[in-house]
Structure formats: structure tokens, C-alpha cells
């Protein structure tokens, strides 16, 4: 069993983050205060922290690197899921994501490390990737 990770990110607005992570993505809320909220992100602890320096219209700025003919934003974060979980999340994301950074698709198809992946941003510009493998144990670090 994997040990859950803890990740803290900055957001421009707590109410907006609650809507995105809690309502839209469906992550359960844990502890919170006026300037931070804990979420259960598939068994991992994601904490959103208010950064008023971002401002109401500002966003976190990401850099991109090419991977499988797509511009992958750096930094980004997410979770590796089972394929069925990923497909359910992809369907859900299509109901509220206006523009995907990378539309849901199969990357490295037919190669070692073949994976389902999708990228999109939260309202503060934090890039998220959700991916899935047919066999996580053998494919996650396949060369």
C-alpha cells in the first residue's frame, strides 16, 4: 500500500477553490480555516492555501515541455488512477472544464508505459494531470 502524499498549493480565492475541488471534482473537505482547506484527493491530502498576491484575475504561471507531441505544463500535479476511475473522472471533468490543456487521450499507445491522461487547470491556474494505467504496478515506471 502506498503512503498518502501531502501537497499544498496556492489559490487566488478560497470560495472558488471550494467550488472547483469540492463541488466540481467531488473531493471531500477535511479541516479548514479562513485561508486554507484540506481535501481528500483519492486518499491523498491536498491543501489549498490562499495567496492574495495572485489577485482576483491573476493565475499561477506554468512552463511547458514537449511530451508525446503535447505541451505538458510544469509544474503540475495529480493522481494515478485505475482506468475505470479515470474514465469516470474524465466524464465528470467534461461537464465543467471549458478548455483542457490536453484533452483526455491514450499517451504512448502500444508502447511501454501506455497511459490514459488528461490535463486541465483549476481557476487559479494550477495545472492538474490525472492518468491511469491498465496495470499500474508494471507500467508506472516502465522504460
From TrEMBL:
Annotated VOC domain residues: 3-133
Any one Pfam family match given in the protein's UniProt record, by short name: Glyoxalase
Superkingdom in the source lineage: Bacteria
Coiled-coil regions listed: none
CDD domains found in the cross-reference section: VOC_like
Protein name (Swiss-Prot/TrEMBL): Glyoxalase-like domain protein
Taxonomic lineage of the native organism: Bacteria, Pseudomonadati, Planctomycetota, Planctomycetia, Pirellulales
Amino acid at each position: 500500500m502506498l503512503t498518502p502524499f501531502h501537497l499544498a498549493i496556492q489559490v487566488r480565492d478560497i470560495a472558488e477553490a471550494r467550488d472547483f475541488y469540492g463541488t466540481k471534482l467531488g473531493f471531500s473537505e477535511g479541516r479548514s480555516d479562513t485561508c486554507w482547506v484540506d481535501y481528500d484527493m483519492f486518499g491523498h491530502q491536498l491543501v489549498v492555501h490562499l495567496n492574495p498576491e495572485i489577485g482576483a484575475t491573476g493565475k499561477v504561471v506554468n512552463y511547458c515541455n514537449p511530451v508525446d507531441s503535447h505541451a505538458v505544463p510544469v509544474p503540475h500535479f495529480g493522481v494515478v488512477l485505475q482506468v475505470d476511475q479515470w474514465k469516470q473522472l474524465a466524464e465528470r471533468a467534461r461537464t465543467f472544464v471549458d478548455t483542457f490543456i490536453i484533452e483526455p487521450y491514450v499517451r504512448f499507445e502500444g508502447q511501454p508505459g501506455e497511459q490514459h491522461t488528461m490535463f486541465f487547470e483549476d481557476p487559479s491556474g494550477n495545472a492538474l494531470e490525472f492518468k491511469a494505467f491498465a496495470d499500474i504496478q508494471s507500467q508506472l515506471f516502465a522504460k
